[in-house]
Amino acid sequence: MELLLVILIGVLYAAGIYLMFRRSLVRLLLGLILLGNGANLLIFLMGDIAKGKPPIIEVGASVFTDVYADPVPQALILTAIVISFGLQSFAIILLKRVYLLTGSDDLDTLNTHDKDI
Q1: pTM for the complete prediction?
Q2: Rounded Cα distance, 95 and 22, in Å
Q3: How far apart are CA 34 and CA 9, in angstroms?
Q4: Is-contact 26 105, C-beta < 8 A?
Q5: What is d(CA 42, CA 58) in angstroms, rounded to the nearest whole number?
Q6: Distance, CA of 19 to CA of 34 (rounded, Å)
Q7: Fewer CB within 10 Å: N-end or C-end of the chain?
Q8: Got the DSSP string for 11-39?
């Protein structure tokens, strides 16, 4: 299972970086989404895939004695999902605005300065 996730993470990172090197803003956004999903899977994999009990110490005990599920990677992934959703929604609105102003999503046709100067 872990080997399959490692391969999937590699494919997501490779496809994301490949798409980010394209000239289209839509492909740039799709590459960013793939990179975010690859990072979430990486955090999930680093948290160890093991079934366990919730990390609650029983009454009278001072340390964990059983295998327990680590909640920190899960909390980090949830936070990353929320942040990436906000970033994606902002990027989609920005991409729509750029397309309405310029009529193209090609990065080479976008100008940041006036030609008259």
Answers
A1: 0.77
A2: 15
A3: 10
A4: yes
A5: 31
A6: 9
A7: C
A8: HHHHHHHHHHTSSBHHHHHHHHHHHHHHH
Distance CA 5, CA 2 (A): 5
Name 68's bridge partners. 53
Distance CA 71, CA 32 (A): 26
What tokens appear for 1 in the block?
């299972």
CA angle 10–84–100, rounded 5-degree value = 110
Distance (Å, whole) CA 40 – CA 16: 13
Q: How far apart are CA 24 and CA 91, in angstroms?
A: 13
Residue 57 CB: number of other CB atoms within 10 A?
11
Rounded to whole angstroms, the Cα distance separating 11 from 5 reads: 10
Q: Which of 50, 46, 47, 18 is nearest to 31 (CA)?
A: 18
Q: Distance between CA 69 and CA 67 in Å, rounded?
A: 7
1-27 pLDDT, tens per residue?
889 999 999 999 999 999 999 888 899
Q: Which amino acid is at 58?
A: E
